[in-house]
Amino acid sequence: MNQKQLLLKSLKEKGFSKEILAAFEKVKRENFVPKNLKDRAYEDTALPIGFQQTISQPYTIATMLSLLELKRGLMVLEVGSGCGYVLALLSNIVGKKGKVFGIEIIPELIKKSQENLTDCKNIRIHLGNGKLGLKKEVPFDRIIISATYNEIPEQLIEQLKENGIIVAPIGNIYGQDLIAYKKVNHGLQIKEKIPGFIFVPLVD
Q1: Which of 32, 45, 112, 173 could in theory staple to 85 by disulfide, Cβ–Cβ 3.0 to 4.6 A?
Q2: Other residues' Cβ atoms within 10 Å of the Cβ of residue 114
Q3: Residue 106, SS3?
Q4: How far apart, in Å, are the Cα atoms of 56 and each of 27, 173, 183?
Q5: Geometric angle at alpha carbon 3, from 2 and 8, rounded to 5°
């Protein structure tokens, strides 16, 4: 059993859906990490990707994807899309009829992710401040924030569809809760909260 199979076995044992497992099996994480870390690509840990940013731990990503309640055909925004790994997983889960958008503030990471995602025709990546969202593509069925902040920015709430779901790590630099919110009557209601995560701060 190789390292990738060990990771998939671990995720399966933790009860993640077949759709999430299939995405992790199809997307090659080694394509999204620096060359000197390729031999560690399937460790269940976060890895540095430069510019004080990381590619998140696979278990953490799978948890966020599960909280999003994804299905085919959805329109999804990732804030802080980094190297593009989560975008690729999202693309696989929402399918060809779905649309996936990333917003990233670091130009070098956008360039790298675009190189990694040439085969994913339903992904578009934009340079910008993630706290402002992506107004020209609204509304979104789902929003995932892949960096920590102390609250959900108001612009992102406005850009989420009614009954849509947003998942984000909320807290300070020392630790965060992973929270899934549902938009109800133009505001957010907490659906689920899981403590004990560490993300890099949302850059603006």
Answers
A1: 32
A2: 14
A3: coil
A4: 14, 15, 26
A5: 100
Catalytic member of 56, 66, 81, 113: 56
For 107, the token pair is: 């130009």
pTM of the model: 0.95
Q: What DSSP string describes 113-177?
A: HHHHTTT-TTEEEEES-GGG--GGG--EEEEEE-SBBSS--HHHHHHEEEEEEEEEEEEETTEEE
Residue of 177, 180, 158, 159 lying closest to 67 (CA atoms)? 180
Give the separation between CA 56 and CA 60, rounded to whole angstroms. Answer: 7
Is residue 113 flagged as an active site residue? no
